[in-house]
Amino acid sequence: MLVFLRRRILSSALPLLAVVLGVFFLARLTGDPANLYLPLSATPEMRAEFAARNGFDQPVAVQFLDYLSQIVRLDFGESLRTAQPAAQAVLQAFPATLQLAGATMAIAIAAAVVVGSLAAYRPNSVADRFASLLSSASASVPDFWFAIMGVLVFAVTLNWLPTSGTDGMGAWVLPIATLLIRPFGVLVQVVRGSMVSALSAPYAKVARSKGAGERRVIFVHALRNAAAPALTVAGDLTVGLVNGAVVVETIFGWPGIGKLMIDSILQRDFAVLQAAVLLTAVTIFALNILIDACYALLDARVRQGVTT
Amino acid sequence: MNALQESTRRARPADPAAMEVEGLSVDIRTPEGVAHAVRDVSFTVRSGRTLALLGESGCGKSMTALAIAGLLDPVADVVGGEIRLNGSNLLALGAPERRRLAGPELAIVFQDALTALNPVYTVGAQLGEPFRIHEGLSRRAARARAVELMERVGIPEARSRVDAYPHQFSGGMRQRLLIAMAVALRPSVLLADEPTTALDVTVQAQIMELLRDLRAERDMALVLITHDLAVAAEHADHVAVMYAGAIVETGPIGEVFAAPRHPYTRGLLASVPGGGKRGEPLRFIPGSPPDLRAVPTGCAFRTRCPLARERCATHRPELVENDQGRTAACHYWRESADA
Amino acid sequence: MSETGDHPAPADTAPAAAPRPRLFALLLKDRVACLAALVLLAMSTAAVVGPFLLGDLATRQNLHSVDLPPFTLDNGWAFVLGSDSLGRSVAARLVVAARTTFAVAVPAVLVSFVVGSAWGMWAGYHRGWRESVSMRIADVVLSFPSLLLAVVVLYVFSPSIATLVLVLAIARVPVYLRTARAESAELRSRLFVDAARTFGASSGSIIRRHVAPTVMPTLITVATLDFCFVMLTESSLSFLGIGIQPPDLSWGLMVAQGRQELQTAWWIAVFPGLAIVMTTISATTLASWARLATDPAQRWRLTVPRGRVRRTARKAEEVAE
């Protein structure tokens, strides 16, 4: 198990580095932040001082090496906007996104398992067709439009929910609902597919021949085998969740990392952007490794490195 | 006493019938039409005896077993017949009652042990499952019974291997595990669907011996589904030969193999290689089995039969009992026997 | 029934694509897929031809017709879907926006399709370091949220239709790369490729003649689904203000513009979203139909009959025997 984990962590390090590199250089290309933070009347000396203070006068490669050495010491620089340490700004915004994403993923997985299993249990039935419809619709609806429709119906017309902000339980409903449609849709299809295979697999037949009732066949025998592909896909979806979070946080004014990233791009706040991106990338990789660990827990063959 | 007399003596009709199948028919819905996979199949199997259900691939023998066990896929339907097990007709029972019988009365062993065992659970958990379902045993008690079972079927070091996973066993061991699972609750009838086909010859012999011992010990009725004439000859008491979804001949195996009455059985036995002189061409039955969506009218074998006549095309031959304990579905079996 | 010793003559075994007329007939049989295809056809036609027919209807401001409600012909055909805060016809704007949306999505998909597929087939065929490096690159690109990537890049190079197409194409190349590589690698291990090589065929020609036609159906299905994704991403970017910029129009942009007036003129934001939904659903439906229809092994799923065989039917057959 440990060998497995170590291997996975090492193989994730390279993409992580590439991401940091990419953002670092791209961000620098968005233009001279001096134009945003210094008044138009700033003299060349003031610009030079600004540049020196923030290290912009060095060649880009040197800047990158400096940055790397700083990261290792967990120093992420200062926000140009607020002069706070960038790490602080990021860590403040992070929990909000984490809560949103975590709740969404948990609900999406639970709901997909229920709906997918139901659909797989009776293929081509009303439940199955409904599930198919639901999941293909969810892949087709743009999340920002869905959010706006939600606001229109529930906040403006019916006045049941607030239009933005984070106060109260009600404020969670629309953001989570919006964020959940895509993962839910995809997971339903995956769960259905793998449950159908599991339910018609030989071991399911054997279980029935031992007198196991349908409930036992589904929940004890089939589900555990079907969980693996679903988990793998859930891992892929975490990336999409970050995409979705950006839109949702912007629309609902949710003070999370997505909003922070968009704002820092628009305001050329490099330090915050880099820190935010790094944290997001680390989280995505950590989440993937966590999911792989769950996968290994469920299936002994993965744990023992068997390649049947 | 020679083998013929021996087997005649063995097939005493006084033995209680553990299971009687009558007129069983199964249809499969395919995109190109309905396939009649099992057509009006009847046979009886007695306690403590082995019936071999013999036939080539695709003749419907596995389908028959699945229909009896109630494990058909949704595209297949049982469209007629009765299966009498200890008095009740299985096909007339509701699902819960049928489930109650699955394990304690009727069990099935499949061919491929690797896919038949759930890869994510230990063998102890799977072997203990019948006890948990039918006798309500706790996990620990079921595990203890699982160890007993493993020892009974000859798995070495059962106590330490009870928590191992299926992929950690060899093919032969896995088949033993499957058998153990099936006989856990001492069923009256055990269906073994090609239990040794996927194994090599030495392991085959061990598995068949295990089955024989278990059968004797528990007075079980064993239905051995196979295409292997040698295995059938060695281990079965009675045989029912299947062709194109129907039974064409039954009887004590020694008698049937010595003097087959149906042209198909004759052809089958004649095509076993060996015994001929070097340089002699191999004998075979010309043609191939019919498409089950378009079975020929009358006798299904008539297109390949050397004795076929007009009557064979218009009248489907019934399984007629023409001797004590022997039946054959052929209008001209006498000619076949004399030839 | 086959007779002794008869064998059908071996059919021509060129791995040709499925014959056109047959696919078309199959499409006509499936009503839902047919409907989806029609919708897409209508959308594309509107996108291509519409703007010419509409003239300046989409941009003509008319302060007398501000915020007209939809579903009524009182104000004439032009305003059947209402008008916005500057008196412009929503319907006309939808059509013009369609053109821009398609003008971004279609080229992006084409570019990523061609580049990704060619790259993937090459990498999968040659295996070794070429394959590993390509896969690593694909992993890196895919592990990054595409929206963020697009935002950053577009901010660097300032958004326009061309940069948008480029960014979306680059972000999606890995999808085709992965699929093409997997299929190509699998095919390479098959015997017919070895046979071709013994005849001295070069890798390029093998890829072209053997690998490509076999992999095409899967890739086309992937492309259709990807079209939806690209369209949705472009809409999101335009909505966030980093995609299509005014005075150009896009459905996503229209939703953003309609957002201000959600309370008073809901139709401005709703209809563009509906247009997106309709297009995506049609494309997805067509893609799943195509996946079944182009795979000979799965084609039967489109024709299997339903329902159970009744006992009476069986008995009738027996009597006839």
Largest pleated sheet of chain A: none
Low-pLDDT segments, ≥5 res of chain B: none
Query: What is the CATH superfamily of the largest domain in chain B?
Result: P-loop containing nucleotide triphosphate hydrolases
Order of helices and strands of chain B: HEEEHEEHEHHHHHEHEHEEHHHEEH
Integer-rounded radius of gyration of chain A: 24 Å
Helical fraction of chain A: over 70%
Instruction: Let me know the number of strands of chain A.
Output: 0
Can you list the strand order of the major beta sheet of chain B?
A: 6-7-8-3-9-10-12-11
What oligomeric state best describes the polypeptide chains here? heterotrimer
Integer average pLDDT of chain A? 79
User: What amount of the residues of chain A lies in strands?
Assistant: under 5%
Helix-residue proportion of chain B: 25-40%
Q: Note the total helix count of chain B.
A: 14
Strand content of chain B: 15-25%
Question: What would the keywords be for this entry?
Answer:
heterotrimer, A: 308 residues, C: 321 residues, mainly alpha, MetI-like fold
What is this entry, summarized?
The complex is a heterotrimer of chains A (308), B (339) and C (321). Chain A has 308 residues and is an all-alpha fold.
Describe the protein's topology.
The complex is a heterotrimer of chains A (308), B (339) and C (321).
Chain A: H1 2-28, H2 34-37, H3 44-54, H4 60-72, H5 86-121, H6 126-140, H7 143-157, H8 170-199, H9 202-209, H10 214-252, H11 257-266, H12 270-298, H13 300-303
Helix pairs in contact in A: 1-12, 5-6, 5-8, 5-10, 5-12, 6-8, 7-8, 7-10, 8-10, 9-10, 10-11, 10-12, 11-12
Chain B: H1 3-10, E1 17-30, E2 33-46, E3 50-54, H2 61-69, E4 76-85, E5 88-89, H3 95-101, E6 106-109, H4 113-116, H5 123-134, H6 139-152, H7 158-161, H8 171-183, E7 189-193, H9 201-218, E8 221-226, H10 229-235, E9 238-243, E10 246-252, H11 253-258, H12 263-270, H13 310-314, E11 320-323, E12 326-328, H14 333-338
Parallel strand pairs in B: 3-8, 3-9, 6-7, 7-8
Antiparallel strand pairs in B: 1-2, 1-4, 4-5, 9-10, 10-12, 11-12
Helix pairs in contact in B: 5-6, 5-8, 8-9
Chain C: H1 20-29, H2 31-54, H3 90-126, H4 128-142, H5 146-157, H6 161-188, H7 191-198, H8 203-240, H9 251-259, H10 267-293, H11 311-320
